[in-house]
Amino acid sequence: MLCLTGIICRILYEDEMAQIAQLYNEIVDDIEFNENTKFVCEWLEERAAHALAHFTFRPSTPNEHVSKIIGSQFFSCSNQKLSILSTNGVLPISSVRMPNSEMSGFIKKVPVVPEIILGQCYTFFEEAKEMNLIEELVLQDVLYELKSRALSEDETVDLLKWWISYRLGGNNVKSSEFSQFMRVATIRMGDKSRALNEFCYFLNPSIIPPDVNLPVEVLPYTISRNLQKQHQNLEKLLKLSELSLVNWARFIVNDPDLEVLPRFAEKVLHIIERGLKNTSQNDKKIIRQLFIRKKCIPTRFGMKIPGEAYFENVDLFSDLSTIQFQKPNVQNILQLLGVRKVIKKCFFFLQFNYVTFL
């Protein structure tokens, strides 16, 4: 008799789930997600939670075996797994995962238990975990999510925060899993998507401001600015490096605007000037070699290479190419690049003879 009760309970429960599934497929799947869709989803979740709560078998008194026999038959009377409503419709419970608040910002395709159902049926899901009927979200679920779609920048921030927390929590990851994670995690950027493994650097705004041209290998600042306190973890757990001044110089020196737009060139030199004091002698040498042949110095007579430009206090002749900056505090970088403080001897000799001849 008790076994029959368990079977009847399962039949009634599955019939209710079938009705909910039909409504979900007819209403939710056929309309674009908006406030009305959200209302329908919440209504279906409330209905599913009501059914599940009333088919959760709690300890019976005075004989505890009554509820155990009915409950056992409820779960075992069918070869099909128990159906529950997930965030992706009605599915077998084994295909649904327990939600994780740290993953909620980017898990959309993997079906999880809705918050309403979990809140009202918490006891059921605790027992379901003990019975191995349902599992927590794991790395493989994250990889499945990442393979199925590209993430927005906000979702990528949530993903990276979870990844850092996951790794710092003592979860070891195989090198193959890390490579797969970096390969399948793609960021939707305008009309194209880029995988995480295409990025090598993150931006430190105290070195390179975010409003200048940057190499394509730099993680968008709209993402990394939300991880300012995680720079060490970005290096350790994502194998990204901070974009150094010298690497940015290697990139920006090839920008064609450097030799034709004085204000652009001035901005570049100001950025290098600001970071020069924390730059090694070897990197300073590299920066000098990069710029020494570039017409990157704004002067009274147009853009000049550093060796053809003079500091503004060199005013012996009126036709000297003296520097012309809106903000002149770039002395260190100009000296490094070889902007002249004195007139070349040969130039002075020619000028002197010219004056004497006249």
Describe this structure in words.
This protein is mainly alpha-helical and 358 residues long. Helices cover 49% and strands 8% of the residues. It is rod-shaped. The protein has a two-stranded antiparallel ribbon. A two-stranded parallel sheet has the order 3-4. Strands 5-6 form a two-stranded antiparallel sheet. Residues 346-350 and 352-358 have low confidence and may be disordered. Strand 5 and strand 6 form a beta hairpin. Helix 1 (2-28) packs across helix 3 (65-76). It has three domains: 2-137; 143-243, no CATH class; 248-357, no CATH class. The protein contains 15 helices and ten strands. The protein has helices at residues 2-28, 35-54, 65-76, 115-120, 122-130, 139-148, 153-168, 175-184, 221-224, 231-238, 245-252, 262-275, 281-291, 331-337, 345-357, and strands spanning 83-86, 89-92, 97-98, 135-136, 186-189, 192-195, 201-202, 241-242, 297-299, 302-304.
Number of helices: 15
Task: Tell me the total number of β-strands.
Answer: 10
**What topology, given as strand order, has the largest sheet?**
1-2
Question: What is the number of domains?
Answer: 3
Instruction: State the separation between the terminal residues, measured CA to CA.
Output: 127 Å
For the biggest sheet, the summary is:
2 strands, antiparallel
